[in-house]
Structure to design on (231 residues):
């Protein structure tokens, strides 16, 4: 009985604190306020996934997060009636890092890519090469297809512009690092690629590298779908 009262008391405290934060009566730093817009510049924490999830349905929250991302984007017109409908989708032109070509992205993919670039990719490049990554080379994002293109499989995350295939990177000095050529080695390029893969795992929900299977021997598949895999 006593325990129950304590539990009730505890729930009351948690509930009123949450309500206070939500109404703005209790001031917490925005990165610790689940209802504050996501700031790409702030270090990711346990609330980041939740904040990314909220961007999917809320174009205004999405714009607020994008404004902190440094990404250059164009909004795509919604296509609700297409075989693979796209809503609240953006074309990413690049940002502080250039892209081999622009790509289509759901808002969570766009913002997660910006978080990845800032908090995983560039720190790994600085740590290993002492310079920045200037360009990300990719194999595409949106493709209206099932997983591995199989007829009886579930829809791929690529079909909703929630996935990107990253093939390699070009450093500021012009050197290129490729998943295909450099993953199998044991030099610092291979070390860099592993560090990038591991850093991506904390941000994307799925990161598949050549360690996953032969289909990924030449790229990292990253997505913001409902599953969680890091390999
Ligand atoms: Zn993929």
């Amino acid at each position: 009985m006593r325990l129950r009262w304590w539990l009730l008391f505890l729930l009351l405290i948690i509930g009123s604190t949450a309500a206070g934060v939500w109404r703005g009566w209790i001031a917490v730093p925005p990165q610790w306020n689940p209802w504050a817009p996501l700031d790409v510049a702030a270090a990711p924490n346990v609330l980041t996934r939740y904040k990314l999830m909220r961007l999917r349905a809320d174009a205004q929250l999405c714009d607020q997060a994008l404004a902190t991302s440094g990404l250059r984007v164009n909004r795509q017109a919604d296509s609700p009636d297409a075989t693979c409908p796209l809503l609240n989708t953006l074309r990413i032109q690049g940002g502080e890092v250039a892209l081999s070509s622009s790509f289509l992205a759901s808002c969570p993919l766009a913002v997660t890519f910006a978080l990845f670039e800032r908090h995983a990719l560039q720190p790994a490049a600085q740590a290993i090469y002492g310079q920045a990554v200037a360009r990300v080379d990719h194999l595409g994002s949106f493709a209206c297809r099932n997983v591995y293109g199989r007829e009886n499989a579930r829809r791929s995350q690529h079909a909703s512009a929630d996935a990107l295939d990253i093939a390699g990177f070009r450093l500021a000095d012009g050197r290129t690092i490729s998943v295909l050529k450099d993953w199998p080695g044991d030099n610092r390029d291979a070390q860099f690629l592993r560090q990038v893969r591991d850093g991506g795992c904390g941000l994307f929900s799925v990161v598949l590298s050549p360690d996953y299977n032969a289909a990924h021997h030449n790229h990292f598949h990253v997505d913001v779908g409902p599953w969680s895999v890091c390999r």
